[in-house]
């Protein structure tokens, strides 16, 4: 059942992404030839007007195939014949819809659970936080000038900035204090610690604060993805650390099963909502990368067109996009192999 739930969640996020392209294409009077769920061979399709709505064999991915998307067309309703700003809106709509989904689901999630305020419950003896004079009840509000809204941001930030001095801004009795801390490595697991304890506690918020923190939640997810990509480029992560659709479905499925076993229906609901926020924000960011074959690659072409004030021939753009897709498929193949290997060896 967990795997089924995982595939449904993954499919919902992808369909919503493609629906963003679809609805903006329709609003800008672009002809949509096919709206497909899944990839590979078509299993079933229904023609509605000019658009074929279809389900394909592989339950990962989807597409909104528009007339003149990768080739020249004399059709006045072709994508390539629309104004630059219209094409940009259509391309950007997919990732933007994913951010909207992440925000809406965050509202539901935080309404149910509240937020994990970054308030410490104590300090560890012999660690930098104690030496800096921090105390139980202090609320960390900034790390090196970056605003902190959730406690879970702190260990992530420390991992991403391992070996660096951290300027900690915290509040106590309505007053703000700053201190410079050099994180200390935990000899047991090698983690960088500033030496604080945290008692897991979630605080329910009012409607306006819930809306505000839902924005912060989406921002946190986007920041996490961008930071992870930065670490990948810097060589701190490897391709073995990446997960593709198979790995994601496995993680979601395992989370569902563990939540059902240990926490019941409410735990399942909360963790699945968490997964939707995480995956939807991830899909938005990854699709905006300026790589041919992704939405970010198309936006890059539109930016070049804006700068040189000349439309790039659709055939040439199509060829570059195909090359990009091939490279992405090879990368997905490597990630898929790693996912299967980790599942077989018990590493995922």
How does this structure look, described?
The protein has a domain of 86 residues: Roll (Pdz3 Domain). The chain is built from 9 helices and 10 strands. The relative contact order is 0.13. The strands form 4 sheets. The protein has a 4-stranded antiparallel beta sheet, with helices on one face. A two-stranded antiparallel ribbon has the order 1-2. Strands 3-10 form a two-stranded antiparallel ribbon. The model has no long low-confidence stretch (mean pLDDT 87). The radius of gyration is 23 Å and the shape is elongated. The chain is of the alpha+beta class and 348 residues long.
Averaged pLDDT, please? Answer: 87
Shape: elongated
> Quick one: CATH class of one domain?
Mainly Beta
Main sheet attributes: strand count, strand direction, barrel closure: 4 strands, antiparallel
Question: In angstroms, what is the radius of gyration?
Answer: 23 Å
- The secondary structure category is alpha+beta
CATH fold topology of one domain? Pdz3 Domain
Order of helices and strands: HEEHEHEEHEEEEEHHHHH
Span between N and C termini?
18 Å
* Share of helical residues: 40-55%
Total count of helical runs of at least 4 residues? 9
Widest sheet, order of strands: 5-4-6-7
Low-pLDDT residue spans: none
Supply the CATH architecture of one domain: Roll
The beta-strand count equals: 10
Q: What is the CATH superfamily classification of one domain? A: PDZ domain
Strand content: 15-25%
């Amino acid at each position: 059942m967990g795997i089924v739930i995982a595939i449904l969640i993954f499919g919902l996020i992808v369909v919503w992404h493609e629906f963003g392209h679809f609805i903006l294409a329709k609003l800008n009077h672009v002809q949509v030839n096919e709206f497909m769920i899944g990839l590979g061979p078509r299993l079933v399709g229904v023609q509605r007007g000019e658009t074929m709505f279809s389900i394909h064999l592989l339950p990962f991915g989807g597409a909104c195939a528009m007339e003149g998307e990768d080739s020249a067309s004399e059709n006045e309703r072709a994508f390539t014949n629309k104004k630059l700003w219209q094409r940009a809106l259509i391309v950007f709509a997919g990732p933007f819809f994913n951010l909207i989904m992440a925000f809406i689901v965050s509202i539901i999630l935080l309404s149910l659970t509240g937020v994990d305020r970054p308030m410490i419950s104590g300090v560890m003896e012999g660690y930098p936080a104690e030496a800096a004079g921090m105390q139980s009840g202090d609320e960390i509000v900034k790390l090196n000038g970056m605003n902190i809204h959730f406690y879970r941001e702190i260990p992530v930030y420390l991992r991403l900035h391992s070996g660096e001095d951290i300027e900690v801004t915290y509040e106590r009795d309505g007053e703000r204090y700053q201190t410079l801390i050099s994180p200390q490595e935990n000899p047991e697991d090698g983690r960088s610690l500033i030496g604080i304890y945290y008692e897991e506690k979630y605080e329910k918020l009012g409607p306006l604060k819930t809306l505000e923190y839902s924005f912060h939640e989406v921002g946190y997810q986007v920041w996490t993805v961008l930071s992870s990509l930065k670490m990948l480029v810097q060589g701190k992560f490897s391709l073995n650390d990446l997960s593709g659709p198979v790995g994601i479905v496995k993680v979601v499925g395992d989370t569902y099963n563990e939540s059902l076993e240990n926490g019941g229906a409410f735990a399942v609901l909360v963790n699945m909502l968490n997964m939707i926020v995480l995956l939807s924000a991830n899909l938005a960011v990854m699709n905006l990368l300026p790589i041919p074959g992704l939405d970010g690659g198309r936006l890059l072409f539109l930016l070049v067109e804006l700068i040189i004030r000349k439309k790039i021939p659709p055939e040439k753009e199509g060829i570059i996009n195909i090359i990009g897709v091939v490279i992405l498929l090879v990368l997905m193949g490597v990630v898929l192999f790693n996912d299967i290997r980790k599942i077989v060896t018990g590493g995922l």
